[in-house]
Amino acid sequence: MDKFTIGIDVGGTFTDLLLINMNTKEQIIDKTSSTPADPSIGVINGLSNLAQKIGVTTQELLENTSLIVHGTTVTTNAVLTNRGAKTGLLTTKGFRDVLQMRRGVRSKQHLYNNKYKAPDPLVTRDLVVGIDERTDADGKIIKGVKEQEIIEALDWFKEEGVESIAICYMHSYANPENEVMTKQIVEKYIPEAYVTISTDVSSIIRLYNRVSTSAMNAYVGPILNTYMDQLMGKLESKGFTNGELLIMQSNGGVTNPVTVSKLPATTVLSGPAAGPVSGSAFAKASGFDKAIVVDMGGTSFEASIIEDGEVNIGKEGEINRNLISLPMVSIHTIGSGGGSVAWIDSGGLLQVGPQSAGASPGPACYGRGGQLPTCSDANLLLGYLNPGFFLGGGMSLDLDLATKAVNQHIAVPLNMSVEEAAKGIYQISNLNMANGIKEVTIQNGQDPRNFPLVVAGGAGPIHAAMIARELEISEIIIPTFSSVLCAVGMLASQLRHDYVRSFHKTWDAAHFTDIVSILADDREEGTQALIAEGVSKEKQMIKIGLDMRYVGQHYEVTIEVDEDIILTNDKELVENEFHREHEKLFGFDLRGHEIEIINIRLSCRGDFVQFSPRIIESMNPDEELLVKQYRHMFEPVQKTMVKAPVFDGDHMKAGAYIEGPAIVELTTTTIIIPSEFEMKLDMNGNFIMVDTASIVKHLNLPFVTTKIN
């Protein structure tokens, strides 16, 4: 029997799967409803669907599956819903309020909001205990830990039912001895507790960063481990006993379950991180080495950037406004998906999101008890969705329920027709998503007009054209697998292990030989981990990052280079790259001003990619596209209802060309082509949509466009 690999992405509304037949290279996708109460149930349902599609039992499929790569939102949801493990924190005496005080300043998003209230910390104050210990900034132990003091704190934790314990002491990045000793005492006294020490998670300068990251790791650890046990139990019971399971990390790489069980905080963007990875693969296949990748699912909208064929990795991020200082794909997320709820604010203005109807009950048109109007309800009313062909006919949409919800909650209160209300929901959703893209482009010194837009998510291609026009983007790439982009990314990722160490030196005093020495142990650990995962040393890639800044600044710019540049001591190249990156981000550089290094980073990567864009059959010169049907839809450029042809996208061949207005229906998504847009299907199965009006308008841009003839 043939052998298979499977990518699985569990989202808030749908669970997406991609199966690759390793013998024939056939690629099959599935999309099934997520099961929030136990996400592993949705995974098994999706696997059963895949088995049916290839004519085997679920047992036969899993017995012949050599690899499953899984992205999960379990840890993300635990933080977003404040349903993580009950966590205790041991920190240096006198610093127990660090989680409440945070950085002492508002984030840039809330800088001028005098009513802003920070979220409750993941560890309540009564479960934060100060320990009378101290290490100085040079790593000298001034005062060691006392076992009796630790035991007294643990007695309190046991009394309060604490499941997980985080340990983070002042200056432990310089010497972790006190943290290690405390961990040993905890493991001896409460062996059943999940224990995290900051130097294992994020060994860097800045106490709040380390405390917040350690607390989050402890907070989600038991949750992830419970889910992994449930998932593995179900997979093994169905026949997956000889294959390998890998987990997607927030840094865009995959690793084994043992690693993520120790560092569960590395999975808080597990699912979304795969989107930019596969977006990069599709952009390259269409001839672009840079792109904006967006993913509009049922609950959220994610935007990210690819440059020089590489996914943009940040050194920290926020989950529900809680800081996490770990490498993660730079993704900006807003609450704007197909299930985003439309509502009227106190000023009488129409808003969409961030609240979502989720998978249950879902939009009103799903017929599962949802009463509130959503973006999907509006799309159905505007003719964009076929009520009898949602998920390829696997699910019916109720037009009457959508009409009732929009009418009752939006149209009547605003004294407008249902159609006008639906148009408003659609247009506001587009504006919200365009603003989300600006956060990863304009706010970071990038002009969105210089990038093509790779669009993913089941709802994304419905909105793609008008989002692009709002930002004056000319080219849009919609992969055939658009609706399961993150599942594709699971099988398009590298194996990856990241490390970070503090290294505070002025540029003149910093010696690259010292950097190599400090990172030696981490390098050995990373390379051995890759070898254990099946990647020989010859196929490994080592990258080193330097967090640099001008003396007097508070925030750093990370410069990533090949290991060879560090080994050859090419400081001039690194310095020039820092000045260039600083100028790109902030509009200026300070050449001649003193520079300093704050942290050093190591990334060990291994080739692993299982997915490559397929080559599809081409149309014959005399072959014509057949219209599936005609349907009335709202044409968003002319802002009027039109009778538009509907085409079958699942059976479309390379070279197919369509002018808007038109609709292309696929099993798992729908593409809306407005007037003044045209679209062609390329040999890799990517739908390339072009805004002809935008190209004419911006011919003076230093940007190569692809005009479809």
Specify the helix fraction band: 25-40%
Number of helices: 20
Number of E-type strands: 35
Looking at the structure, what is the overall shape?
A: globular
Overall mean confidence score, pLDDT:
89
Structure write-up:
- It is a single chain.
- The protein has 709 residues and is α/β, with parallel strands linked by helices.
- The strands form 8 sheets. It has a 10-stranded mixed sheet.
- It has 20 helices and 35 strands.
- Helix content is 31%, strand content 27%.
- Mean pLDDT is 89; it is low at 698-709.
- The radius of gyration is 26 Å and the shape is globular.
Summarize, please.
By secondary structure, the chain is of the alpha/beta class.
